[in-house]
Amino acid sequence: MMKKLLSVFLVLVIALSGISFAGAATAVPLVPFKIVDVDIDGTDMSDVNTLYVERGETLNIRVEVQTSSLIKDVDYTVDDVRVKADIAGYEYDDIEDTTEMFDMEGGVRYVKNLKLSIPEDIDASENYKLRVRVYSQDYEIDISYELRVKSQRHLLNIQDVIFTPGLVLNTNQPLFTTVRVENMGDNKEEDVRVEVSVPELGRSGITYIDELVSVENDDEETSASSDTIYMDLRGAKSGIYELFVKVEYNRGHDEVTKSYQLVIDGATVASGFIVESAEKSISSESGQGIVYKIDIANMGSDAKSFTAEVSGLNWGNYRVDPTPVVVQAGSNGEMFIYVSPNEDVIGQNTFTVNVKEGSNVVKTINFEANISKEKSEWSNVLTGLEIGFVVLLIILVILGIILAVTRMNKKEDEEPLGESYY
Q1: CA-CA-CA-CA torsion for 99, 100, 101, 103, nearest 10 degrees?
Q2: What's the angle, vertex CA 40, arms to CA 37 and CA 45, rounded to 5?
Q3: Tens of pLDDT along 253-299?
Q4: What pTM does this model have?
């Protein structure tokens, strides 16, 4: 009887083992694909702890993926797979790239290429996490790498371009351009050349920025606006033209360019001159002066003299320089309004400037000053003295208490002891 039971038990064990092995032969792992290899700009990342990259650089990421199984010859397919690469930690935008969906067949290796552009204004000397992720609707696997971002030796960025009166002009109307440039590199840049041109019309204007220090230097100006560039467009026909803003630096070895569309619509300018201001609203702090610039272009055949009439500026003092400003034919000139707000003035304040040619008002411009309150240095000194006085008063009170207690103890020690009787 015992032998029969043992035989039945062995049969059951063998049967269950057969089921287990059969199941193992067709089993698919928890994640049915794997990342075989990752290369960044030709560097195999399998042996790299930290990869150095530069601002403005584009990373070419090559990812090899393949299905994974316990048994190599198992034939199965994973549908709707994507590969994604992203960099975490950039404040202003998402740095990522994702492939189109694809199906993965068993035993087949797939190569996917992605690109990530390192922003020019990302913080340098910081570590960032680059993650490569392979995922489908049901499965996901990822791998991460450390990136160390550093500045290029020479790298300028065009922050902003201001066109006055705009990029849609009348025939014979001039264009004023101000370019703001920022130094994102390690080195100070000197004699930065700024050019605005319309090659199809053969027109251009050039100016220079003396120097720009690195954005990593907090003690000096890292960005600056160029002087206003005047472009004479007389004789230009109606049409749409490509306008280029080019900044050359590092002794002309490097440049950065932006392009815009300039529209000339065919109307005429009756007055023969244009008066405009690029910055009509300026923010400042209480006690600081403000400077407004007015650009004047003379498209006539004779020199013209211009003056400025200021009104509504009862909240401060002002002066106009130069006055008058004489602009030669076919040239441009500048007029500056220097404003010194009263000490108690804060908030939004406005005034009006009438630019006159002779006795005729040729342009009325409304200016705005947004003034915030800030303590003067003397106020800060007074505040410091007040705090110091309070601290000194507390110390004197504590010393007084200590002296009083000391005197009381001394007095008790000096009192005669009473007689004792037994």
Answers
A1: -80
A2: 50
A3: 899 999 999 988 754 454 677 888 878 888 888 878 899 999 888 87
A4: 0.48
Question: In the CATH scheme, what is the code of domain 33-150?
Answer: 2.70.50.60
Q: Which amino acid is at 113?
A: N
33-150 and 153-269 share one fold? no
Residues in the chain: 422
Task: Note the Cα 220 to chain centre separation in Å.
Answer: 18
User: Contact at 8 Å (CB) between 89 and 129?
Assistant: yes
| pLDDT, tens digit, 9 for 90 and up, residues 190-233 | 899 999 999 999 999 999 999 888 766 555 566 788 888 999 88
CATH of domain 271-374: 2.60.40.10
Strands 254-264 and 168-169, bridge-based pairing:
parallel
b/e burial code for range 122-151 (CB count within 10 A of at least 16 → b): bebeeebebebbbbbeeeebeeebebebeb
The CATH T-level fold of domain 153-269 is Immunoglobulin-like (2.60.40)
Question: Which structure tokens are listed for 277?
Answer: 């201001």
Q: Where are the domains of the chain?
A: 33-150, 153-269, 271-374
